Amino acid sequence: MADDDFQRFVILNRLASASTSHAPPEYKPPLVGGEALLSVLQDRKNAGHAIEFIGGADAERDADETEDARIARCSGLNFIWLRDIKVKKSGQYSYAKLLLEYVDQGKRTFSVVDTESLEGRDIAGRKNERGGVSAHIVVRLPTTQHDDGQYRCAIEVAHSINRSMIESFINRQLRRWARADELTYEVHSPDKKKPGRMNTKTYKYTPRLELLADVGRSLSFATAGGRELAHMIFSKRSAKQSIGGKDHVLDEEIIADVVLKINAHRGPNDPVERIKWLTGLRTLYETNGYKTKLTYRQINGGTITGKVHQALAGATDLLMCQKELMSLKHDYRDWYSEIDDQVADQMATFVDKDELWERGK
């Protein structure tokens, strides 16, 4: 590396396809391939709808809104959006290159200092200009190979953009698409009241793309940052629950909220095995439509929960994920107007390097 090269961290994850529905757990919804889901993002970007807002309690009250009405209502909130996306075949694989941008509505100026006089000043943007930060993402997709629903993914580390924000952006976008297109599948199940007869019921489902750290190579999140995982809470709103039994004449169905709390210490003692156990539980419940909330206990006794600050979330990503350094010939940049091929192509070499993806090292 030359002395004047600029270095930047890249974290390595697997992007996994999953689907959720309100069907009984044994009737899994269809999985949608990564290429098809990323093309949904591309279509939404072209339509001007690939944007998600952050920081407003009412940002999700949009079930009956048009996309334009949602965007107008959330004007003034911080947001993350898909600025650019390209999908191109190269050799045996296709590579999806995405450029996400986070815009902070409170950032109107930036500071500069004269290196000789040491005098400083703030430079202000124009009336509607706000601070923006970009992050490249590269996903490797199979072409003729077997598609197992898991794809190597490289993420450029950028302040203010973390894995949680990226995953939330992608899945909110996919949920909006699934709701608008009314994705459904049929479930054929035995009729409990009429043996030999099958019932057919149609369920809606929502595809997802989840970012998974390689737990075989990651720092145990059970003790990261001076804390340990205390509980995992899974919740699902408006789930159907049966009421009845041998002492009841009739079975009834009600609509109820379901909340399950699992003590993390019920898992294996070995830290790596415990992560695998917890990850398996989380995948199982989230696949069936549950939302996850993690409660941590400080090692000195206190308990914390709720949302983690963006800076802490980004630092945790660096701690728990496999990472590599890329060297760039141009100056330090926080923002890009389009995908930088020098950045994206170097990230593509990381997703192609098999030794970086071996577990347990």
Topology:
Layout: E1 6-21, H1 34-46, E2 51-54, H2 67-73, E3 78-90, E4 93-104, E5 109-113, E6 120-124, E7 131-142, E8 150-156, H3 163-181, E9 184-190, E10 198-212, E11 227-243, E12 252-263, H4 271-287, E13 291-298, E14 303-304, H5 310-320, E15 322-328, H6 341-352
Antiparallel strand pairs: 1-8, 1-10, 1-15, 2-3, 3-4, 4-7, 5-6, 7-8, 9-10, 11-12, 11-13, 13-14
Biggest sheet architecture: 9 strands, antiparallel
Helix content: 10-25%
Fraction in beta strands: 35-45%
Low-confidence runs (pLDDT<50, min 5 residues)? 215-226, 239-255, 299-308
Structural class: alpha+beta
Task: Quote the distance from N terminus to C terminus.
Answer: 25 Å
Q: How many DSSP helices?
A: 6
Number of DSSP E strands: 15
Mean pLDDT, to the nearest integer, reads 81
Whole-number radius of gyration?
A: 23 Å
Shape: globular
Walk me through the structure.
With 361 residues, the protein is of the alpha+beta class. The chain has six helices and 15 strands. Helix 1 packs across helix 3. The chain is globular.
Quick overview:
The protein contains six helices and 15 strands. With 361 residues, the protein is an alpha+beta fold.
